Amino acid sequence: MLLKTKHFGEINIDESKIIEFKDGIPGFENLKRYVVLYDGDKNSPFRWLQNVDDGELAFAVVNPFMVVKDYDFEIPDEAVESLGIESILDVMVLSIVVVPEDISKMTMNLKAPVIINTKNNKGMQVVLDTDRYSVRHYIIEELRRQEVNVGAGSDEKEK
Amino acid sequence: MLVLTRKKNESIIINDNIEITVVDVQGEQVRIGINAPKSISIYRKEIYLEIQAENKKAAEIKNVDLKEDLKDFLK
């Protein structure tokens, strides 16, 4: 189907890739269908969580494990149950990113990750019951530290 | 809002599958136990509101090219 996207204009998406968020996500409870878009570089930790029913709604998201190497949590029972998760191999985890005017202050939400069961394309945002992770975790320092390949077009380093 | 008075160890039942029990009362603090189906999401309200606000902020994202914009920071 043709999908209007916030950042990529009108694109053709495979309907079987649509992820159902039964309860939406907090703040956008009525919008329930999303797709994950890559901008062509699978090595980059960034993706877009694009809403299907409202083209103007798209979140920048990251694969948190590519940014925070020791990020670790147990998937809450409520997610295992409502997403019907059978194997950890089917699970995709994304952190929603806030990109302010000053991009150096970009943060990711480690406290409330988006969990997707890629087997049945069901997703939800969960809230971790821990004080270990913050809703506003600064990204730039992490990226610098980890030397993550963000696809920033930097010269390839010699191994 | 419906207001009920409960003592320690007393419960209320909602919709025949959610049980809320007053576990302990110490001055200003009340400990509450909740028995509910696993698929029900339960949040501390202030945290839920914080997540909502954060998501709304995230949705205000302008048309950025993260790759380009991050270049300068990761040299």
From TrEMBL, chain B:
Quote any Pfam family the record assigns. Answer: CsrA
Asked if the keyword Endoplasmic reticulum belongs to this entry, the reply reads no
UniProt keywords (A-Z) are: Bacterial flagellum biogenesis, Cytoplasm, Repressor, RNA-binding, Translation regulation
**Any Gene Ontology CC annotation:** cytosol
Read off the Gene3D superfamilies from this record. Answer: Translational regulator CsrA (2.60.40.4380)
Instruction: Write out the GO MF terms.
Output: mRNA 5'-UTR binding
Family assignment from sequence similarity: Belongs to the CsrA/RsmA family.
HAMAP family registered for this protein in UniProt:
CsrA
What is this protein's record name? Answer: Translational regulator CsrA
**Species this protein is from:** Acetivibrio thermocellus AD2
List the gene name.
csrA
